[in-house]
Amino acid sequence: xxxxxxxxxxxxxxxxxxxxxxxxxxxxxxxxxxxxxxxxxxxxxxxxxxxxxxxxxxxxxxxxxxxxxxxxxxxxxxxxxxxxxxxxxxxxxxxxxxxxxxxxxxxxxxxxxxxxxxxxxxxxxxxxxxxxxxxxxxxxxxxxxxxxxxxxxxxxxxxxxxxxxxxxxxxxxxxxxxxxxxxxxxxxxxxxxxxxxxxxxxxxxxxxxxxxxxxxxxxxxxxxxxxxxxxxxxxxxxxxxxxxxxxxxxxxxxxxxxxxxxxxxxxxxxxxxxxxxxxxxxxxxxxxxxxxxxxxxxxxxxxxxxxxxxxxxxxxxxxxxxxxxxxxxxxxxxxxxxxxxxxxxxxxxxxxxxxxxxxxxxxxxxxx
Length: 368
Description:
Blueprint: H1 2-17, H2 29-50, H3 57-93, H4 96-108, E1 120-121, E2 127-128, H5 142-155, H6 159-176, E3 183-185, E4 188-190, H7 194-199, H8 202-219, H9 226-235, H10 245-262, H11 266-273, H12 275-292, H13 301-331, H14 336-340, H15 345-367
Antiparallel strand pairs: 1-2, 3-4
Helix pairs in contact: 1-2, 1-11, 1-12, 1-13, 2-5, 2-8, 2-10, 3-4, 3-5, 3-12, 3-13, 5-15, 6-8, 6-15, 8-10, 9-10, 12-13
């Protein structure tokens, strides 16, 4: 699994560099990110059903925060170091509300996926490009990831609820199918379907739930449920995904199988741990390469950026991430009494909002 994760991360590096990495082009950045979501859904289902089964959700949240935020802020600092003049120029040119949103979304991560929907008004009366509101562009994908983490304890321990969430994820895609572009109402300024089938967080629900179903229908049952796979394939045949429906279903089946084959390989786990820093730290280095106007007759842009970011990721992993990981694993302690004493009502309310509010919003945009 670790090798797959680093291949996906390097695919994003190659995509953003617009060049190969020692001849490797990868699967494409727009494909790699949804596959990451499927993997995340699988892992969260596994740890919530096995590792965190007798601990309160708050400790799961704390562990996820310690995993995401330290390296994220390293990426923010790297971006500010390299692009501070450009970031300040964009910030200065915005009106007050977009400025506040830019600060909050970059400090908290939440909301990074929403920027592509709206017109962020500049002082000259024009709309700023949404990507410019992010200090570190790839970090947008962390927003749906965190929203999923918040919702996961409310449903992912139940196979039936996971199926329900998967079906609601399908419903989202069926609702957005047939949108007429451009959309310019209620503050939304969408020029293409990338806004809704890729960057808006509800589009990721189907991927997360697919990974979770892989755990419930393969790992827990110790066999592949071909009936469930066939039902999934039929359900998504007309869903506008970035990958063919058959490949999407194969991901749900293949990722748990790959995990079982590689879970005891220590080197594979270490390689997998590098995928997150490679993913989140590479974009400022791409910008630095462009700033320095480097032209190498021997190495491509992607090769140079990938080499540097893998080296930095190794340093970050051994000096920072590994220590944080040890701390968060040792700190996660609890008992069945802790779990029983925790009310599920706030989680259920959040899960309802997480699933229903986007569907209502899409219906308003489509039919009002």
